[in-house]
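[step 3/7] inverse_fold.run input=structure_tokens len=484
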């Protein structure tokens, strides 16, 4: 049985442990105030809508089963998402390691040796004492540093916050990849529409060239008209080749994003460009809490704040307990006998006296990193507000521009038809026809590109509003009441 003195030592250690559990150095996290407007600058007021949220599968709003399949493929096979998932798993194990320091470490050690002593040495071996000796030892040992100043608890708090930051970072990567696939697919369909318009323009210029050549053979048109018609036809053909080259680049980009190298997507026409979804009015700026990058930046701030406590606790005395219990004997069968029992208890106190300012410098470094994290969180929130406001403004302006471009296309189409009739009737030079056709082609391409820009703005806005994201309840997540 363990002596009374050993029991008293253990009781004293438990008392010290209970006292230490009440002391935690370092500042508790409190969310700082952000100087941001209550709503985004747009028509309408916040009372018109109660905290709207983008739906989680927001890409389905574009009404394409092909896009849906590509997005799902990217969410499964994208390399960036795989890397983000691995970083999240690493953070989970870092938290588990940090929590392990709250408990004693117990090791089981076994040792055996056999030796022979000299019978001719300075100290003779007494009679009856064997010169061959066996020593066997089996013992469990433990070492535990009392978390008297909260160093371990602050370290666990930092690891917990870093796990949440990694969780949110993984969600950021998923939204980014989803947005990149959607943007690339919409650009691909815009290029398909531009290819179709350019092919129609090429057909029109082929027909015009045939008319000009026929008129030149009849002496009605000049060689200058023929040269101009041939140049216009070559311009349209060159433009078509360039658009097809760009389409190939975008198609390969989608293949990389989805992990499908060699992906081949069928060509679509003008009808493949959907109408952008319209955002609701009066969005409150509180939607910033639905952005995982803002939450990730805040959790990094929480971790940096906790590490200030870790650094301050390192400047205080440390108290450690050690213990050993086991058996030691010459024979293996005697290890469990009472006479072979061995034990020890120990308490160690380490007090930093002089380190030339090393620990104080580390504490100042931790506080400086905390201020950096605070600035990074504020920047993330301010950037989120700006991106959302920009997305709303772009969506409104893009719609207004499209209305004007439609009017320009209709006017250019009528002008091209009239110019060709006037030329065929001999009332105008071919240069008028050429100018009208170029104007029509430019107007049609501008309308398609503006639609593609509006779609791109809508994707940017979906991402700026959090992409349907909401803070998940994960294992190890801090409660709001304990940290806010």
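[step 3/7] decode complete -> sequence:
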């Amino acid at each position: 049985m363990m002596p009374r003195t050993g029991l008293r030592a253990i009781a004293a250690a438990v008392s010290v442990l209970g006292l230490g559990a009440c002391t935690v150095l370092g500042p508790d996290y409190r969310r700082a105030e952000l100087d941001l407007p209550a709503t985004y600058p747009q028509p309408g007021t916040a009372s018109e809508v109660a905290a709207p949220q983008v739906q989680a599968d927001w890409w389905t709003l574009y009404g394409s089963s092909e896009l849906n399949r590509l997005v799902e493929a990217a969410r499964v096979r994208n390399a960036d998402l795989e890397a983000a998932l691995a970083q999240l798993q690493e953070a989970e194990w870092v938290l588990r390691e940090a929590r392990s320091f709250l408990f004693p470490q117990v090791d089981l050690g076994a040792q055996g040796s056999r030796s022979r002593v000299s019978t001719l040495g300075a100290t003779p071996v007494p009679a009856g004492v064997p010169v061959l000796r066996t020593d066997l030892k089996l013992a469990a040992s433990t070492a535990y540093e009392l978390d008297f100043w909260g160093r371990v608890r602050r370290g666990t708090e930092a690891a917990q916050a870093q796990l949440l930051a990694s969780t949110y970072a993984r969600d950021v990567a998923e939204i980014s990849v989803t947005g990149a696939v959607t943007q690339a697919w919409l650009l691909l369909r815009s290029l398909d529409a531009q290819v179709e318009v350019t092919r129609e323009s090429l057909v029109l210029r082929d027909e015009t060239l045939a008319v000009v050549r026929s008129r030149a053979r009849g002496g009605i048109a000049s060689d200058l008209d023929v040269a101009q018609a041939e140049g216009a036809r070559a311009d349209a053909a060159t433009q078509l080749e360039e658009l097809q080259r760009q389409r190939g680049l975008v198609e390969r980009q989608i293949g990389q994003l989805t992990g499908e190298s060699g992906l081949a997507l069928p060509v679509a026409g003008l009808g493949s460009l959907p109408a952008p979804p319209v955002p609701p009015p009066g969005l409150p700026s509180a939607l910033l809490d639905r952005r995982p990058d803002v939450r990730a930046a805040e959790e990094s701030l929480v971790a940096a704040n906790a590490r200030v406590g870790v650094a301050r606790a390192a400047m205080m005395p440390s108290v450690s307990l050690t213990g050993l219990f086991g058996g030691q004997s010459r024979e293996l069968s005697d290890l469990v006998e009472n006479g072979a029992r061995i034990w020890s208890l120990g308490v160690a106190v380490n007090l930093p006296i002089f380190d030339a300012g090393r620990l104080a410098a580390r504490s100042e470094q931790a506080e400086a990193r905390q201020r950096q994290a605070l600035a990074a969180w504020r920047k993330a929130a301010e950037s989120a507000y700006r991106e959302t406001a920009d997305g709303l403004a772009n969506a409104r302006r893009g719609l207004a521009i499209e209305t004007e471009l439609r009017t320009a296309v209709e006017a250019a189409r009528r002008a091209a038809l009239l110019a060709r009739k006037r030329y065929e009737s001999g009332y105008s030079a071919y240069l008028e026809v050429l100018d009208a056709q170029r104007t029509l082609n430019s107007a049609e391409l501008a309308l398609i590109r503006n639609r593609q820009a509006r779609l791109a703005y809508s994707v940017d806005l979906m991402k700026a509003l959090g992409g349907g994201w909401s803070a998940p309840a994960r294992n190890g997540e801090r409660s709001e009441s304990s940290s806010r």
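[step 4/7] annotate
Residues 16-21, 44-51, 474-484 have pLDDT under 50 and may be disordered.
The longest strand covers residues 132-146.
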